[in-house]
Structure formats: structure tokens, C-alpha cells
Amino acid sequence: MRHVLSALVMNQPGVLAHISGMLASRAFNIESLAVGATETPELSRMTFVVKGDDRVLDQVRKQLEKIITVVKVIDFSNQNFVERDLMLIKVSTDGGQRSAIHELVDIFRARIVDVGPLHVMIEISGQERKIEAFIDIMRPYGIIELVRTGRIALLRSAVSSEDVETEQPRSLEPPPEAMV
Amino acid sequence: MSIAQKHAESKPKTHANMNGADILVEALIRQGVDTVFAYPGGASMPIHQALTHRSNVLRTILPRHEQGGAFAAEGYTRSTGKVGVCIATSGPGATNLVTGLADAKMDSIPMVAITGQVARHFIGTDAFQETPIVEVCRAITKHHYMVTRFEDIPRVVKEAFYLATSGRPGPVLIDFPKDVQLEKSTVAPDYDPPMNLPGYRPEPRSVSSAQIRQVLAAIKRSKRPILYVGGGAINSSASEELLKFAERTGIPVTMTLMGLGAFPGSHPQSLHMLGMHGTVYANYAINEADLLLAFGVRFDDRVTGKVSEFARHGKIVHVDSDPSEIHKNKAAHIPIVADLREVLAALNRDMTADDLPDIREWQAQVAEWRRAFPLSYKDPGDDSILPQYAISELHRQTKDRDLYLAVGVGQHQMWAAQYYKFERPRRWMSSSGLGAMGFGLPAAMGAQAAHPGELVIDIDGDGSLLMNIQEFATLHCEKLPVKIFLLNNQHLGMVMQWEDRFHEGNRAHTYLGPVDHPEAVGKGTGEIAAAYPDFVQIARGFGLSARHVRSKAEFPQALAEMLSTPGPYLLDILCPYQEHVLPMIPGGKTVKDIIIE
Description:
The structure holds two protein chains of two kinds. In chain A, 28% of the residues lie in helices and 37% in strands. By secondary structure, chain A is an alpha+beta fold. The longest helix of chain A has 13 residues, at 54-66. In chain A, 26% of the residues are buried. By secondary structure, chain B is α/β, with parallel strands linked by helices. Chain B folds into three domains: 2-182, Thiamin diphosphate (ThDP)-binding fold, Pyr/PP domains (Rossmann fold); 209-372, 3-Layer(aba) Sandwich (Rossmann fold); 387-574, 3-Layer(aba) Sandwich (Rossmann fold), CATH 3.40.50.970. In chain B, helix 24 (555-564) links the parallel strand 17 and strand 18 (569-574). The N and C termini of chain B lie far apart (54 Å). The model of chain B has no long low-confidence stretch (mean pLDDT 95). Chains A and B meet through strand 1, helix 1, helix 2 and strand 4 of A and loops of B.
């Protein structure tokens, strides 16, 4: 199962290296990782997309929490949250298809951010499925290159995601296979 | 205080002329540090200068290799519970600490390692003796710092000691650039600043009385309970509560390699060590148990063998201070994240006579296994000294002396774990999780520094001893009277044993003598004519007393001589190399596959 984890970490040199090193050394499979500043200068937020069963997720989360500079980890799965990817994509307009591309950009509510004689650069954000669909639809025109951020996500609520989460039970319940 | 005499005039400097290194040393002293193991170099010279100014309260021991210093700090910690400190210079000095840090991480040993670093403006330029040691050590420390601001020094030291000792203990690295060491203070430093650890909440979660009731109910229902106790019992100083709990319930106790000493080895309820080289009766009992009280353990593969088959009939109560250990290798039915001593104290407090299980049948069964499968070895009936016999004799001669015992890694380590019975915690020092050869001698050295008047013995193998043999110089020069009990079989015995069992006895670089000897290719007669190297001559060269012994008839007297000789002493015991450590459950196998002979 796919999980979106969010970690508040201390904004210090080496924290990202520490976390990515831990994930690699314990052979956890990370699909996406995005890091950025937050509303508090001392803290950064990392958003991870991790694939694995509940047991793997439980370990990823506990091992993250064990890192001293990780302040808080929350698992968005099974909660009401918004997730977004951002992509910049350069598409060739060599074949004279600029207006067709423009139409698709409108349909996808993307934006053209740079135009040249032979290309356009498009900015698009949204859920992963939408981004993937847009890539597929641009492919026939000739994708020159593209870049994507990792996933970012926030809970739908009036307070910060960490405050909502604190009441969640710690994952200390035995996994189902332990029940006899 | 002869060591302090050369600096008899030393006084703490006033803050007006203190530099960063002085503040570091002062901060260490305020943390209660009385001994450091420190090897100087260009980037740590200011620290050493500062150490000389405070030598009246802080002893600096010069190991002969930084790895020896790190293991010595561990020996200090393991034998006292206080934080051991080692210091090295940048670059090679720092990288030589790496094995010690990894060892302390694996065995949850609180330690603070301080490394000099090149000046800040050189960092990242591949300067002379520059190594990004924080990068190297991230995965093998509990936490790590690089001090980039002078004013951070007291806070970093305070946090380092707090992190090392709280929650699940572990090593902390402080990397300290030379220019920060040399920076002068303008104001009096605050040695007790607020800490900045917003993400660290190590308080053992309180044990709810509901959880305690749950455990008591599980015990009451059980017919075949067993206590499986590890290093967590030592780290949380839970021995007294454990003894009380075990005696009241009558539940048999087995210990991991790290747990030895948590429960008295001579106690009738002790099943001694379990796992790969544990006793048959401990492994049978674990296998048949219907309730596993897994206290301060981590279900290591050397304990469990094939983990899915381990204790498969048993409900598991898992108590640990580290939430990430719960369900990591084995799912627990009753998981409790808390300090083990707290849990045992609560169990002892809340347990009534009604909670006691009726386990007489089980106790009889365990006693029967113990009778049928005692720890044993075949006496060849000649004059050779079997290692198992040698350690039994050591135990016989020293059991009233409350000694401290360190070991290297390999066969001798397992035999020591099997045949020496520890009555108290913190008497046994073994590189257990990492299995680092060369650990024994420096660890014993650190324990001796912490316990100057006590008997400290390093049971070592010839392979392990050679890995840090330079520390003989430290024993002599620092007046540390460690006794080295060398079980010399001229081979890397544990690897040889696996060659014999799993590789048709093909010797693959496990003979430690010259390559043209027949033993190098497994064609020896079993008689070692002349052992290589001559450890006695080496020891004497370093200023130690030493002797050989290869006759069983002479052994008890030779051992007595070692024990009664003042100062450091090497007893080189030539042993037959054909012995295997038994019992043995091969890696990844189950108790059904146990090899008894």
C-alpha cells in the first residue's frame, strides 16, 4: 500500500543526508521525497511517499522518529488530505502543433510559462494521476525534458497537521498476524 | 595522585583566558567525567593542552591506537554505567574511532566521542587530515554534532551526555573544528544552557496499570512461562527487581549474551545463555514456552535462528525502551515501551498471591532438560588444556573475587559466556552485536581504569588479541594491572569451526602461523610445535609479566600465579585447536537442528 508520510525536521545541515541514509541502509523503498521550508524558520517539512505493508510503514515511521533531528512524523494515509506534485515540462512545437498543445494546457488547467520558436515550457500541478496523464498526452508532440517535485501534502483542517495527529494512537498494536 | 603531580600547579583558568578547548574540558568535568581516553594530533592539540590544566580532576589515558581508546571508553561505560569518553584528532584519528562507535551503537552503550576537525575555513577543501567524520558516522551513532559556533560548546556537551544516557542509550559524536577550540571567550560561559532537542522525547512512557494487569493475567494463564532477558536489563539497572520478580513467580530465566549478569548465573532458576551457542535447556525451554517475557531484548538473529520458528508456541510480552524494536523482528502480543526497571517494579508491586501461575510441571520439565543436557565437553584425558576447562578453572579460582571480565570475539568469547558464571551486572564486557575482534584488551583496560583496585581479566583469543596488542603499552605505562588470559589455539577458531562444519574442513586463511606450516592447509597433526607469535616475548617487551602454559597439570598453579602477580600479566595458554563451541544451532536454523556433539 502507498503511504504519504510527513516529517517536521530541524532545519540543520545534514538532516536530509541522515534521513535518506537511514532509509537506504534499512532498504526502505521511497517513491518520492520533497523537502522545503515551513512557516517556522527552525523547521523544515519532508514529505515521503513510501510503498509497503503496515509492518514496513510502522518501521519507517519509528526509525524516522528515532532520528534526533526529526521532530514529528505523521502518516496521512486514511486521512483527509490534499497532495500535489508540480512539474515543468518542455514540449516541442516543431510540428506546428502549438495551438493544439495550448488547448490541452487549458483543459488540464496548466500554464505555459516560456515560449520559444520551437518549444513551450508548461507548468502543471496536481495529483500524480493528473500529471501522469498530462505527460502521456504530451508524448506524441515530443517531450524535450521534464522535471517534477516530489509529493507534498497537508491535512484538510483548520490547525496544523501535527496538532491534528497527536491524538492518533501510537502504532503499538500488534499487526494482525500476531493475534492468536 | 602521581599522574597529577606533573601538573600540580594546574588550576582552572578564569573565563577571561579560556579558549574553546578549555570550555569543552570544563563542560566534561561538570558532566562528572573523571577519565578520558585520548590520542592527540594536530587538530586536537588544544584539547590536550586544556586537559593538562585540569589533570588534578580529570585523568587522561593515552591509548596506543584510537580504536583502543574507543573500546576502552566502552569498557569504562560497560563496567560502571557512567559515560565513557574518548578523544581523537581529525582524519585518521577520527576514522580509527569508527569501529568503536559502531560497537557502542549496536550494544546500546552510552559513550561520547570527541574528534578534532580542521579549522572551519578548511572544511570541504580536502585539507590535510580532513575527513567528514560526521557524514561517516551518521548511521553508527545515536547522534552527532559539529560544533560550528563557539557559544554552542556547553550546550552541545550537555545535549551529548543527555542523549547518550537517556532513552535507549548510545554513542554521540562531537566533531570540533580546531579554530573553535582556539577561540577565546569574552564572557563567562553558561555551562547549563537550555537544550534544543524539540524532537527528542526519551521519557519512558509510563506503564499503565492496565498494561501491568494484562501482563499479570498472561502470567497467571500461562503453564510454561520463561523470562528472556537482555542488555536492556543491565542498562536500566533492573537486576534487583528482576531477581525479586523471578523468585516470586518461579519463572526460569534465560539471558542473551548482552544480558549475562542481569540475573545471577549460580541461581537455580538461571538457564544461562540462549541462542546459537546457548544451553540446550534454555533453547528447549524457549521453544516449548507458552509465554515469553522478552525484557530488554531485540530478537537478534543469533538468538532466534529462524525467526518465524522462534518461540512459536508462545505469547510474547515485549518490553523495550525503544519503540522501533517492538514488532521489528517478531510481533509482540503485549508490547510495552517503557523503562524495564519501572515495569518490573510495577509488576512486583501489583502482583498478588492470586496472580502466581501454577508452573510446577514446567519447572520439573526444565529441570529434566537441565539434567539430560548439561553444558559439557569431552575431556581428552591427556595433559592438554581445553579452553572450556581453562575457563571453568578460572571461575573456580576467582568466583569469590567479583572480577570484571572482558573478551574478544570468537570461540573464546562463547566459551567464556558459557563457562564463566556472572553473579552481578556490569561484570561482563563483550562486543556482542557488532562482534568486533580486538575488543577484549582495550575494554579490560577501560574497566581497570574505572576500578583501579579490582581484578580485571581479558579472556582473549590469539586472533583477537593481536588486533589491539599495542595496548600492552598502555597497560604498562598507565599502570593498569589487567590480566590477559590468552586461549591460544593458533587459529581463527570460530571461522575454523564453521569450515569444519560447513566447508568440509577446508582451511581458508584461518591458520595464524606461517603459510608453509601444514596447519595452513588443514594438514596439521594437532600438535603445535611452536606457537606463533611468541606472545610472552611480546608482552615482556612491553614491560608485562608473562608466561606460557601448555600442561594441564601445571595450569591451576600457573593461573594462581597470574592472579597473584601485581601489575599487568599475560598467561599464554596453548590449547588444542580441534575444539568446537557446542551446543550450536546453525544460523537460520531452529532448535530442532541443535548440534550437541
